[in-house]
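Ops channel
N.P.: pipeline sanity check, posting one input/output pair.
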């Protein structure tokens, strides 16, 4: 098992960070991570999802 991190910006504007484990023996395994805010599903190649985190808004500062 190797740890992987998937990070994306959901359509609701939230940055979602998923920590998961991938098994090199099953490279095509897929898990569904749900946005903690709106529930939008996101498919990631992983064996097991460890945690779904809301990434801090500080990570990016949108110009006004
Ligand atoms: Zn969302």
């Amino acid at each position: 098992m190797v740890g992987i991190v998937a990070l994306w910006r959901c359509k609701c504007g939230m940055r979602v960070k998923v920590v998961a484990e991938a098994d090199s023996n099953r490279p095509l395994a897929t898990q569904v991570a749900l946005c903690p805010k709106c529930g939008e599903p996101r498919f990631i190649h992983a064996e097991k999802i460890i945690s779904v985190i809301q990434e801090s808004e500080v990570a990016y500062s949108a110009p006004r």
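N.P.: looks fine end to end. Residues 10, 12, 14, 35, 37-38, 40 surround zinc ion (CB under 6 Å).
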